[in-house]
Design a protein that fits this description.
106 residues
Length: 106
């Protein structure tokens, strides 16, 4: 169940981060309220995941997968430029998360 909570934490954080683009500096109430609600939900789900997982693992996965997801969404859906350095950097972030996960298994 802890992994499902962590997946929900990542999904809500990514949704909130994408919505930040539409807040116009928090001057638009509806997107702004969505961002705040999504971030509150993300932290809540992350806290629930900590009942069954180590904090170092939870934070690494949450931050790493969230970062990689936002980068991919930016490049595929929001028209941000794609280049080899970005792709390689995303691979390094994911590799780091996998490494921390494997290290925690020992």
């Amino acid at each position: 169940m802890a992994w499902l909570y962590l997946a929900a934490a990542i999904a809500t954080e990514v949704g909130g981060t994408v919505a930040l683009r539409y807040t116009d500096g928090f001057t638009r109430p509806l997107p702004s309220a969505f961002v705040i609600a999504a971030y509150v939900a993300s932290i809540w789900f992350m806290a629930l995941s900590l009942k069954g997982l180590e904090i170092s693992l939870v934070y690494a996965v949450w931050a790493g997968i969230g970062t990689a997801a936002i980068a991919v969404i930016g490049m595929t859906a929001l028209g941000e430029p794609v280049n080899a350095l970005k792709i390689g950097s995303i691979a390094l972030v994911i590799g780091g998360v996998v490494g921390l996960n494997l290290a925690g298994a020992n």
